[in-house]
């Protein structure tokens, strides 16, 4: 068969692409289950929303108050339902219509300590304290004295008509979200009038409001203190000291307010106001309650006007008033509020799928077997990336479609183009990181556990840590940016912004005009930069055959003797010993290799020169030399058999030649290509049958051969013919076996498929590691025929424990012992060289056993009895002491003296040679 041209980049990429498509078709239901996960979650969120609407949004407490009343006839037969503020409780009032909001007196928030100090118990209340500080010590105390100067009026009508604009009123009630129905006015607690001096236990009452809401309120006078402090740090210390903690209650501060006048003078009015806002939200913590600060601003403004223009100058502040509004209902979009958490989980669920797939190919060595058959790193990463990107894109598109179709505003309101680009960037970053961290894992189970911790941890940390810090305006924004460098938080931030634009009641959601203001531009930049950095890091780690753990090797102590130095010392010692013990045939092979080394010829498909492999010692053990100074040359058309006991280094030699491990020293060439420098090119003409079957469980035998055939540049009818011939040659074509998943094959069928894969495309170099293991005799003989046919146009290196297989297939044999090549030659030469005796066997009746011994002594005095049971005896006879004709004559003569049931004379078998050579090693290891 003519040499095939190596497959091009696109051809190999096409082969992997077709294999992945077939793999997906075989796993279609797994993909369906993956894609419907977003649908399940969307249905769950809709169910939660429905339950929340029924129990919370539409509950009586979250609607304007209503009452059934008699009609105008008063007969009680007909009733009508009337709704309005007059029927509302404090919670319900928030949802009522307010076409004409009533004016309300501006109130100060006054803290009420849980436990009154001893000095306050006599009056029943503590003075209301206001602190003042600033940089101008002459101006500051004056303004401090001007804050509280109005005397209290006892006339209730005057209080309502005039005093609300002048008197300082306050309340200890917690504020609501709005002032439509202010608890400070509508609660049972009295309103506090803050004055410099108060008569003991002075209380008054007044009425206010408009029909139908008219309220009678008690007003109690409380002394107010305006205290000057020289430094702002003193104010800060006093405010902090004033906090008290009750049992499961909010923190209360005894200081009502504080002013920092800064650089205020006659020409400049600059002030900072500290106010008390230590309230918890009982219903929804994300909403901010009403801040009672207008009167605080009015107080300091009046004090400054009096300083400039005299005591009679005031800026009257009569009332505060809300904007008119229609009747509203509570509607909390649970899906949007919880979207950042749940959709973070949904999108990150792709990460374990991708990483597990990559680690699975690494753990099962599927990637390396593809590489051995010619699939380069470029096609592998390109197609794998495109493959995962396609699956991920379909996944997020289905998420958007399901969410929109089912009615979730999270998807329907926000601009679809922004959503898609954001998700697209996130999945690209996710794939890149999966490629990067796959080098850190060697087992699928470990990778799965780690990634699911990452998935659920990212969502929970985003909700309970990152979102909390992000909403805290006092937290430095630079630290938010740093936290977003963590991919899980950048994903969460984008989903959070989508949620905010929906849950804040914006009907149009997030649009491109909101892109920069929302902070999404920052998230996009971070994701894009990390995406490319992850790809670059993956490229360099993969090209250098490194893993992430190798990056930390520099942390090892520099004072420890390097492993390379130990190896070099060990190699020198091993080399000397090896040369001392080499047989003449091994020496001749070494000399032939040395002649070939200056210019390795393609006539010799495989050339190894002084190849060594030393594994470093671990856990206090000495370094282990697996291959010691191996030199062989295998021409095309030859099958070279590698024999040896377990642990002799046979598999290590195959692993070196196939690129699984790098040699410690020495050189090896495959068709003139150095395996240390040009292994990628060498793979294009190589076929490998590994010791363990490396197959995809869901792909059929035909799928495997089609894939590897395409990697060998077979196309069209040539590919189809080659696949069918390969299946027929290993008896996998009939009874539909070729189209069954490889996971359902028996061990022998998998072994035959592995051999067929190694031979498809007529590779020029084939490595077979125990190819007939587990086969029945008929299948083994058929497989031997296939291998013997294949060696006509290829160089084959074959390891085996079957002497029959080695003798049938191999043109030359090399026996390994303890990592060394002990002897080399064809089976006949080895038997002639190491088998220096015949085995004579004779079976007679038991009483003639002595006669048989005397017979053997007659024609071979140095014969050695090696077996005796019943009437059967075996003797080892040195070849140089006897001729075969003499043995025949002696047996014919003995037959006339006693009855001989059976006898035989056998030459030394290959198994005998193997045992003899293996026993020459002083100590057999268990290295594999």
UniProtKB/TrEMBL annotation:
It is a multi-pass membrane protein. Pfam families: ABC2_membrane_3, ABC_tran, ABCA12_C. The keyword ATP-binding applies. InterPro entries: AAA+_ATPase, ABC2_TM, ABC_transporter-like_ATP-bd, ABC_transporter-like_CS, ABCA, P-loop_NTPase. It is found in: Membrane. Residues 606-843 form the ABC transporter domain. One of its GO terms (cellular component) is membrane. The keyword ATP-binding applies. Signal peptide: none annotated. Its main location: membrane. PROSITE patterns: ABC_TRANSPORTER_1, ABC_TRANSPORTER_2. GO terms for molecular function: ABC-type transporter activity; ATP binding; ATP hydrolysis activity; lipid transporter activity. Keywords: ATP-binding, Membrane, Nucleotide-binding, Transmembrane, Transmembrane helix. The chain crosses the membrane at residues 34-52, 342-360, 380-406, 418-437, 449-469, 523-541. PANTHER family: ABC TRANSPORTER A FAMILY MEMBER 3-RELATED, ATP-BINDING CASSETTE TRANSPORTER SUBFAMILY A ABCA. Belongs to the ABC transporter superfamily. ABCA family. CPR flippase (TC 3.A.1.211) subfamily. This is ABC transporter domain-containing protein. It comes from Arabis nemorensis. The lineage of its organism: Eukaryota, Viridiplantae, Streptophyta, Embryophyta, Tracheophyta.
């Amino acid at each position: 068969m003519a040499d095939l041209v190596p497959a091009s980049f696109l051809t190999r990429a096409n082969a992997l692409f077709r294999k992945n498509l077939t793999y997906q078709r075989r796993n279609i239901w797994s993909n369906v289950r993956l894609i419907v996960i977003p649908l399940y979650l969307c249905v769950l969120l809709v169910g939660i929303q429905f339950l929340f609407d029924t129990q919370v949004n539409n509950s009586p407490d979250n609607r304007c108050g209503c009452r059934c009343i008699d009609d105008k006839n008063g007969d009680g037969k007909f009733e009508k339902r009337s709704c309005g503020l007059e029927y509302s409780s404090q919670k319900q009032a928030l949802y009522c219509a307010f076409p004409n909001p009533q004016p309300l007196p501006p109130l100060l928030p006054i803290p009420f300590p849980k436990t009154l100090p001893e000095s306050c118990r006599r009056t029943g209340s503590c003075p209301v304290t206001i602190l003042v500080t600033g940089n101008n010590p002459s101006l500051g105390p004056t303004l401090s004295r001007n804050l509280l100067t109005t005397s209290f009026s006892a006339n209730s009508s005057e209080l309502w008509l005039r005093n609300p604009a002048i008197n300082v009123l306050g309340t200890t009630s917690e504020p609501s979200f709005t002032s439509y129905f202010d608890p400070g006015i509508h609660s049972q607690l009295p309103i506090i009038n803050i004055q410099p001096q108060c008569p003991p236990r002075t209380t008054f009452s007044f009425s206010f409001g408009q029909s139908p809401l008219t309220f009678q309120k008690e007003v109690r006078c409380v002394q107010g203190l305006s205290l000057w402090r020289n430094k702002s740090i003193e104010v800060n210390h006093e405010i902090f000291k004033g906090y008290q903690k009750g049992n499961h209650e909010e923190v209360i501060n005894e200081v009502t307010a504080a002013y920092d006048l800064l650089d205020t003078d006659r020409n400049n009015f600059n002030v900072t106001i500290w106010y008390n806002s230590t309230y918890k939200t009982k219903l929804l913590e994300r909403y901010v309650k009403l801040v009672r600060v207008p009167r605080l601003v009015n107080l300091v403004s009046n004090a400054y006007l009096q300083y400039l223009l005299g005591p009679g100058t005031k800026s009257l502040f009569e009332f505060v008033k809300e904007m008119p509004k229609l009747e509203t209902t509570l509607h909390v979009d649970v899906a949007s509020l919880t979207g950042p958490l749940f959709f973070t989980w949904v999108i990150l669920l792709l990460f374990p799928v991708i990483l597990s797939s990559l680690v699975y190919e690494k753990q099962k060595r599927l990637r390396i077997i593809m590489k051995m058959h010619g699939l380069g790193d470029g096609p592998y990463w390109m197609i794998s990336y495109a493959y995962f990107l396609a699956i991920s894109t379909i996944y997020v598109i289905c998420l958007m479609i399901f969410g929109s179709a089912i009615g979730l505003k999270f998807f329907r309101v926000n601009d679809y183009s922004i959503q898609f680009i954001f998700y697209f960037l996130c999945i690209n970053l996710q794939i890149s990181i999966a490629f990067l961290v796959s080098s850190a894992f060697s087992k699928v189970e470990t990778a799965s556990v780690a990634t699911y911790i990452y998935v659920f941890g990212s969502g929970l940390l985003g909700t309970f840590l990152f979102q909390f810090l992000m909403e805290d305006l006092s937290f430095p924004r630079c630290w938010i940016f740093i936290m977003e460098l963590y991919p899980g938080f950048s994903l969460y931030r984008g989903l959070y912004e989508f949620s905010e634009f929906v849950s804040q009641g914006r009907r149009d959601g997030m649009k491109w005009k909101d892109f920069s203001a929302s902070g999404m531009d920052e998230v996009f930049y971070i994701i894009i930069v990390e995406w490319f950095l992850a790809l670059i890091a993956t490229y360099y780690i993969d090209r250098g055959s490194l893993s992430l753990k190798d990056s930390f090797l520099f942390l090892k102590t520099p004072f420890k003797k390097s492993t390379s130095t130990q190896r070099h010392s060990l190699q020198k010692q091993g080399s000397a010993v090896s040369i001392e013990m080499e047989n003449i045939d091994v020496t001749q092979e070494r000399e032939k290799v040395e002649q070939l080394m200056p210019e390795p010829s393609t006539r010799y498909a495989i050339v190894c020169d002084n190849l060594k492999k030393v594994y470093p010692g671990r856990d206090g053990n000495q370094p282990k030399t697996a291959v010691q100074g191996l030199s062989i040359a295998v021409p095309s058309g030859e099958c070279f058999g590698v024999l040896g006991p377990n642990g002799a280094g046979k598999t290590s030699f195959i692993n070196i030649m196939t690129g699984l491990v790098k040699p410690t020293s020495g050189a090896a060439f495959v068709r003139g290509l150095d395996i240390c420098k040009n292994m990628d090119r060498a793979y294009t003409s190589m076929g490998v049958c590994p010791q363990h079957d490396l197959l995809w469980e869901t792909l059929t035998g035909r799928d495997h051969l089609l894939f590897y055939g395409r990697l060998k540049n077979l196309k069209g009818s040539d590919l189809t013919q080659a696949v069918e011939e390969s299946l027929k040659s290993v008896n996998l074509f009939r009874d539909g076996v070729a189209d069954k998943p490889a996971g359902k094959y028996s061990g022998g069928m998998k072994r035959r498929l592995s051999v067929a894969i190694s031979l498809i495309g007529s590779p020029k170099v084939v490595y077979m590691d125990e190819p007939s293991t587990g086969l029945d005799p008929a299948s083994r003989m058929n497989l031997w025929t296939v291998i013997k046919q294949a060696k006509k146009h290829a160089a084959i290196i074959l390891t085996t424990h079957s002497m029959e297989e080695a003798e049938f297939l191999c043109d030359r044999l090399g026996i390994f012992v303890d990592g060394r090549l002990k002897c080399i030659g064809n089976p006949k030469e080895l038997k002639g060289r190491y088998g220096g005796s015949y085995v004579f066997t004779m079976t007679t009746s038991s009483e003639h056993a002595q006669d048989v011994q005397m017979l053997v002594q007659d024609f071979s005095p140095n014969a050695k009895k090696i077996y005796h049971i019943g009437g059967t005896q075996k003797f080892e006879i040195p070849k140089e002491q006897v001729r075969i004709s003499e043995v025949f004559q002696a047996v014919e003569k003995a037959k006339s003296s006693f009855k001989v049931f059976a006898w035989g004379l056998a030459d030394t078998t290959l198994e005998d040679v193997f045992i003899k050579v293996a026993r020459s090693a002083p100590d057999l290891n268990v290295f594999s």
